[in-house]
Design a protein that fits this description.
261 residues; alpha+beta; Ribosomal Protein S5, domain 2; 6-stranded mixed beta sheet; 4-stranded antiparallel beta sheet; 5 helices; 31% strand
């Protein structure tokens, strides 16, 4: 049986003709699904698929100690794990540079948007809530950043807030929602030769020269992360920010539908 190997020339020739391997336009997302509240023992959770990329996020709150320089604020702690079952390029062991970057990009968008008021996580002197956002890549086919951000924000937006009664953490019964004051999404672009595409799949990521992830809320760009050595001109950057604001409208609809489920 013959197995066709995708090459950089093949991908570049397709893009030069204005199409992509899966038939999408240059600035189209693959199909997106969002499933909230799928981990019963988590305060919040969500599973997101973008094409064949599949990401699971769990949110948990625990009692901890504040940081010395922020004694009246709780702690937001975001981590990511690239499970070996998701890709033959992922391995067990300490967090890889890719996992660390993924967690930081997701965390930066959430933190810089003011989505979580860490002062509201204060309990009493020397006691605060630690808010853990754990990201797991279940299947990798490109663009972990947008899928991870969408899953994390959905999980936070649907999370329940535990209570403390008689020094015990209560996680059941009549609990309110975690206080969330903003909605952040991200759009990731890849530059391959002279072409810029949205939502690169795994084959496209393998041959990209540069990558740019833009995180925004409804009105403001909150964070950016550039990857690899390829560059984006000021004009390209301005255009990509406009595209991000447009595409984020549809991404936020997925979150709003999840909140109403």
């Amino acid at each position: 049986m013959q197995i066709r190997t995708v090459t950089g020339d093949y991908i570049k020739d397709l893009l030069a003709s204005g199409t992509r391997e899966d038939g999408r336009d240059m600035l189209d997302y693959r199909s997106i699904t969002v499933k909230p509240s799928i981990i019963p023992n988590a305060e919040g959770s969500a599973e997101v698929t973008i094409g064949h990329t599949r990401v699971l996020v769990g949110v948990k709150l625990g009692v901890g100690s504040p940081m010395p320089d922020k004694p009246n604020e709780g702690n937001l702690i975001t981590g990511a794990e690239l499970l070996p079952l998701a890709s033959d390029s992922f391995e067990t062991g300490p967090p890889s540079p890719e996992a660390i970057e993924l967690a930081r990009v997701i965390d930066r968008g959430i933190r810089s948007s003011g989505m979580i008021d860490t002062k509201a996580l204060f309990i009493e002197e020397d006691k605060v809530w630690d808010l853990f956002v754990d990201v797991y890549i279940l299947n990798y086919d490109g663009n972990m950043f947008d899928a991870g951000t969408l899953a994390a924000v959905t999980a936070l937006s649907t999370a329940r807030m535990p209570k403390i009664e008689d020094n015990k953490v209560i996680r059941e019964g009549n609990l309110g929602r975690l206080k969330v004051s903003n909605t952040i999404t991200s759009c990731t672009f890849a530059k391959i030769a002279d072409n810029i595409i949205l939502d690169p799949d795994r084959n496209e990521e393998e041959f990209m020269d540069g990558r740019l992830t833009i995180a925004n809320d409804e009105n403001v760009v909150r964070a950016m992360q550039k990857g690899l050595s390829g560059s984006f001109s000021p004009k390209e950057l301005e255009n990509l920010m406009d595209i991000t604001f447009d595409k984020s409208k549809e991404l936020r609809k997925h979150i709003e539908r999840a909140k109403s489920d």
